[in-house]
Design goal:
Elements: E1 19-22, E2 25-31, E3 38-46, E4 49-53, H1 60-73, E5 79-83, H2 89-92, H3 95-102, E6 105-108, H4 110-121, H5 126-129, H6 132-137, H7 142-148, H8 151-158, E7 167-168, E8 175-177, E9 180-187, E10 194-199, E11 204-208, H9 230-238, E12 249-252, H10 261-282, H11 290-297, H12 304-323, E13 327-331, E14 337-341
Parallel strand pairs: 4-5, 5-6, 6-7, 11-12
Antiparallel strand pairs: 1-2, 2-3, 3-4, 8-9, 9-10, 10-11, 13-14
Bound molecules: zinc ion (ZN).
Zinc ion binds near residues 86, 88, 191 and 209.
């Protein structure tokens, strides 16, 4: 078995064009206005119609590109289904619009549907207000914490109104597309119930953000679950992908399709091991505040938005180590959490 990745396609299709990557599976790209500048989406032949996987963010540019693609590539057949990997705005943003345009069905996992609805309805930042006390204890300035309340309106701006109904996708119930079985594999940790779709017959897996070729998906604590352990959920759910054949073509949401999933999994496990080692080394000095641990994990300058994301990642690693009794958390007299490595494993039942 070759332990590296191979990239069968040298470049992505041009804007407004599609490229066939497997029989009846077409790849297209949409621009993104933040972070990574693009997202990969998939257009699948499906009997008398088409299934679209993920949608792009809600803006006029993306709608215009979709209309060009509809005019050029649908062969007179309608879009009958919009199938999603997860609720993040680059994936779900235009799902409501697509469903409306085509009177298509929306298929996704229940938790992703609920989180999308909840985030969309949360206009006043209620979901984030509960996190404020935690973020102050991490040492974030009050002004930055207040900025977080605006994150929910950011989500709302990136998505078109969602349909009130959906069709449930779940592990164990394959989705049939064009007469072929696409097995549903659920990844946790990056989002609540992220679906990947594996078609053994085509030897293709739609990996979403779970199986990216180079960058690791961000794993941070959710505002609604501030004491959560998302890194453990992510790493545990990642194991199942070792069952996918190594020559399977992975269709990721960002960058290029690739083969060599087992190597990619090895690298992701090694990456988080290394991050945990950094955290443990940093915390061997007694009582380090979270923002100091962030500096040890990411040795580069971060802008306020990056700092918030980095803090989320950092706390995810801290929680992972706390739940394994490798780190303990205490509240210092200044009101901040301090993190210290535990010399010998001791039994703790909850956070300090
Ligand atoms: Zn995502």
């Amino acid at each position: 078995m070759t332990k590296k990745l191979s990239f069968p396609f040298e470049r992505a299709p041009d804007k407004g064009h599609v490229q066939e990557v497997a029989e009846g599976v077409f790849w297209l790209r949409m621009p993104l206005p933040f972070g990574i500048d693009h997202i990969n989406l998939w257009l699948l032949e499906d009997g008398d119609g088409w299934t679209i996987v993920d949608s792009g963010v809600c803006n006029e540019e993306t709608k215009t590109i979709w209309k060009e693609i509809f005019a050029k590539y649908l062969d007179g057949r309608p879009v009958t289904r919009v199938l999603l990997t997860h609720f993040h705005p680059d994936h779900l943003g235009l799902a409501g619009w697509l469903v409306d345009e085509w009177q298509a069905e929306l298929w996704m996992t229940p938790l992703e549907f609920m989180f999308a609805q909840m985030s969309h309805l949360d206009a006043d930042g209620h979901l984030y207000s509960g996190m404020a006390s935690h973020y102050l204890r991490f040492g974030l300035p009050e002004a930055t914490v207040n900025m977080m309340g605006k994150m929910s309106s950011f989500y709302k701006e990136m998505i078109s109104p969602l349909p009130p109904m959906f069709h449930r996708v779940r592990a164990g119930d394959p989705v049939m597309i064009n007469g072929r079985r696409w097995e549903v594999m659920i990844g946790l940790g990056h989002s609540p119930e992220h679906a990947c779709y594996h078609c053994p017959e085509l030897n293709v897996i739609i990996g979403g953000d779970q199986l990216l070729p180079r960058i690791t998906p961000s794993i941070g604590i959710m505002p609604s679950e501030p004491e959560g352990d998302p890194l453990r959920l992510f790493l545990e759910s990642l194991k199942q992908f070792y069952e996918v054949p190594d020559n399977c073509l992975v269709l990721p949401s960002h960058e290029l399709p690739y083969r060599g999933v087992s190597h990619r999994l090895d690298v992701m496990y090694a990456h988080h091991d290394e991050r945990c080692d950094r955290v443990l080394t940093a915390c061997s000095k007694r009582g380090l505040p979270a923002l100091e641990v962030v500096k040890a994990m990411f040795d580069r300058e971060l802008d306020p938005m990056q700092q918030m994301m980095a803090l989320g990642e950092c706390v995810a690693h801290l929680h992972y180590l706390i739940y394994q009794n490798k780190i303990k958390r205490e509240i210092h007299s200044d009101g901040l959490y301090r993190y210290t490595t535990v010399g010998e494993p001791t039994v703790v039942t909850a956070f300090a």
